[in-house]
Amino acid sequence: MLLQVLSTISNSSLLQPGFSLLNFNGHVFFFGQKGWPKRSCPTGVFLLDLKQDELKMKPATFSKDSCYLPPLRYPALCTLRGSVESDEYQYIIHGGKTPNNDLSDKIYLMSLVNKTSKKATFRCVEKDLAGDIPEARYGHTVNVVYSRGKSVSVLFGGRTYTPLAQRTTENWNSVVDCLPSVFLIDFQFGCCTSYVLPELQDGLAFHVSLARNDTVYILGGHSLQNNTRAPSLYRLKIDLPLGSPSVTCSILPGGISVSSAIVTQTSDTEFVLVGGYQSDNQKRLVCNTIVLEDGRIEIVERASPDWTPDIKHCRIWFGCDMGKGSVLLGIPGASKQLVSDANYFYILRCKEAEEDKEEEVAAQICSQPATEDPGDSTPFEDSEEFCFSAEASSFDVDENDTYNEDDEEDESETGYWITCSASCNVDINTWVPFYSTELNKPAMILCSNGAGHWVHAQCMDLSESMLLHLSEANVKYFCNEHIDLNKGLQTPKKLVQLKKQPMKPLRRKAARKFTAPVKKSFLRRLFE
């Protein structure tokens, strides 16, 4: 096993724990930056160009018929193919944290529609499901299994926020384990079904999941309820007959006590497990080989790489599978660095040197979480992992065309040409500036409903004065489709009662001015 240091990474502050990598045809794309995207890359998706020990980033674009995809951290990802032998695939993206620390319960399908040496264009579609909808969560896994010529996605585990009815001021942002239910998602018919299995008693998060044919293996993980990393190993077998699906669970021996581990595939049946934590205050520096074949799993220990002193002594680490035996690892940078949130990155190659020469690093998708932002959690237990699946081969891109957040001429425009609503009439071919502040892109505003989505100000019939007011004021905006829903959920504002000031009595001299003189003789006649 060979450990390689990456000496130069452009805009490394974007690569924080919680991001994911998508691999399309050997090209690796970064997704899930910390914070909202900037104008230089409104989609928040970047092509990673790794050459030797240098890593550069180039903005990617979305097609016009794409939905808005927020930069989700710690989601569950995996590839969805039409069949086991199919070469075409798309990514399933479910859950995760938004930059506002809200949890998403939406599920997206993302595919690559065009790739040139200068530009990559994606299509992202939000899928509507019926049935037992999984709650918003993160730190979970999703896999695809195949049975009887059909396929279904298997979702399990994760964490979510404490239910609203149980929240107090002290535990408002506390998280709990999701119920140990298994969800089967059929994208062909748009339905989802949950299964409660007696073998699964405790909720798990940041576990490892491996899928092969009709079987999913669940290894390790951490339970918040018991604060344990039990050496668990479960086997889920899914049968897809003409009627209702069948899900069975078996508890297998030989599990490993680990959370936040990374798995990379080195051959058709062999995987390597790297990293993670074995206790609250101890990283797991041991590596294992996992073999899946003939409906069985075998886990054996293997030689570990020569870890550097920085890796051995750091408090947290994170990383992801890069495909075909390579893993990208990251550790926090030293506090003395000029960029405080920068990290150090390494590439761990688990294959033999001869095999590396025959084929460079290629894409292989493994669904598992990765280490959470240390600022949002304790060093180990809540250092929650992220999905990371990608490849480090050389890309046919212009070396000078890389991401620079200060270079507005290099920014992507496709994010402005989405279909923001059902009544959207903005077309890249016919659009002309509507507001005085527009130049070559339409003005957009963020709707605060749910995870948030961008809409065109012109489609919302906003006047220029109102648009300027909303851009300057610190208020939440809701688009025309969500304004009624937001009003129904708002707490009525408390009416402020106006104070009635008592009238001051007139002074004596002032009263005389308003009193007519009365003769004494008249008063005598009045009372006689």
Automatic annotation (TrEMBL):
Biological process per Gene Ontology, one example term: V(D)J recombination
- Where does it sit, as one GO cellular component term? DNA recombinase complex
Q: Which GO terms describe its molecular function?
A: sequence-specific DNA binding; zinc ion binding
**Keywords of the record:** Chromatin regulator, DNA recombination, Metal-binding, Nucleus, Zinc, Zinc-finger
Q: Which residues bind Zn(2+) per the record?
A: 420, 424, 447, 453, 456, 459, 479, 482
- One Pfam family from the record: RAG2
Keyword Repeat assigned: no
Question: What parts of the sequence cross the membrane?
Answer: none
* Keyword Zinc found: yes
Where is the protein localized?
Answer: Nucleus
Q: Which InterPro entries match?
A: Gal_Oxase/kelch_b-propeller, Kelch-typ_b-propeller, RAG2, RAG2_PHD, Znf_FYVE_PHD
Under CDD domains, the record lists:
PHD_RAG2 (cd15569)
Q: Where is each Recombination activating protein 2 PHD domain found?
A: 415-492
Principal location listed in the UniProt entry:
nucleus
- Please state which protein family the record places this protein in: Belongs to the RAG2 family.
Cross-referenced PANTHER family: V D J RECOMBINATION-ACTIVATING PROTEIN 2, V(D)J RECOMBINATION-ACTIVATING PROTEIN 2
Protein name, per record:
V(D)J recombination-activating protein 2
